[in-house]
Amino acid sequence: MAGNSVAADARAERGRQCLVTGGAGFLGSHLCALLVGRGDMVHCLDDMSTGAERNVAGLQASGRLTVVIHDVREELPPGLPRFDEIYNLACPASPPAYQADPVKTALTSALGARNLLLRAEADGARIFQASTSEIYGDPDVHPQAESYNGNVNPIGPRACYDEGKRFAETLFTDFARAGRAEVRIARIFNTYGPRMDRDDGRVVSNLVVQALLGENLTIYGDGNQTRSFCYVDDLIAGFDALMHADGPLDGPVNLGNPDETTVGELAALVLRLTNSRSKIERRPMPVDDPRRRRPDITRAGRLLGWRPRVGLETGLAATIAYFDRLLAEGGKPLPPRSAL
Ligand code: NAD
Ligand code: UDP
To answer: Is the dihedral angle over the CA atoms 134, 140, 142, 146 positive or is it negative?
Structure first.
C-alpha cells in the first residue's frame, strides 16, 4: 500500500511513462499531444510507413517526447523505460495503405499485439488497443453495438485489416481473462480532422483536397453508402476516458459519432463549405466496401459518460482550414493541436 502511494507520487511528479505505437500517424500524433500536454513522458514508436516525424516534431521541443523508429512486428528495442501505459495504434488505417502490403498489415496487428501485450505484462502497464468498426465488416445489423459479431469476408481484400484487428481483440481479451494485463479496447469509427495524410486515400481528405484544388470529387459507387464521421478531438477525449476509467473494464467499447451521412451528402457539404466548383466523378465501388456504418454508443455513454460534441459541419470547417493552410504552405509541418 505504502509502496503504491510512493510510486503514485513519483508518477505525479515526473508524469506517467507512456508508449504510443503508431504515434507519428494521424490519431497517434493527436494522442501524443494530449499526453505531452498533461506532463507525461511519451515514447512515440513508429516505423514511419504511413506516419511522419513532422507530425510530432513540434512536441519534441517539450523534452517529453522521444521518437523511436521501430516496427511493432519485431520485439521492442532495448533501452526503453518501464511503462505505466501502452497505447497500440500502429497499423495503416486507410484501405489503399493497408492493402498495399496486406501480409505486413495482418502481421502488424497480430505480432504487434503479441509483442506489446508481453511488454504490458512484464511492466504491469495498462494497455490500450486501437480496434475498429471494421470488426463489423459489411454489417447486417444496424446500428452496430458491441454485442454484434460482424460480417467479415475472411479472404477479401479488406481481410488483412479486419481479421488482423479481430485477432488482436482476441489476444487482448485472452490476456485480460487470464489476468496477465489490464486492457482497454476501443472500436473506432471513421475519424477525420487536421493532420490526416492528404494522400492516404480516405474519403474526407480526398474530397476536401480535391475541392480545394478544383479537381473532380471522386465518389466510389452510387454515393449512397453511409459512414458516421467523428471529429478527432472527440475521439481522443474518448481514448482518454476509456484508458483512465477506474477498475477493470471488460470488452470493447465503440467510439464514434452516431450521426450517419451518405458519401454523396458528404461531398455536397464539402463543396458548399469550400465554395468549390469541382464536379463529381463516379468511380467503381471497391470490393467488400461496407454499405452502411453507424455506432451504437450506449456503452461508452454508460461506462465513460462520453459522447461526441463536434458536428460534421463544424469539424469539416476546421479540417478544410487545415488543408487550405497545408496546401498554401506546400506541406510544411503544422502545429500539434487542432483548434476548433
Ligand atoms: P495512420 O496511418 O495515420 O497511423 C498509423 C501509424 O502506424 C503510422 O504512423 C504508421 O507509420 C504506423 N505503423 C504502421 N505499421 C507499423 C508497424 N508495423 N510498426 C510501427 N508503426 C507502424 O492511421 P490513423 O488513422 O492514425 O489510425 C491509427 C490507429 O487507429 C490504427 O491502428 C487504425 O487501425 C485505428 N483506427 C483508425 C480509424 C480512423 O478513422 N482514423 C478508424 C478505426 C481504427
Ligand atoms: N470513398 C469515396 N471516394 C473516395 C474515397 C473513399 O467515395 O475518394 C468511399 C469509400 O468507398 C467508402 C467511404 O467513402 O465507401 C469511406 O471510405 P474510407 O476509405 O474513408 O473509409 P472506410 O471505407 O475504411 O470506412
So the answer is: negative
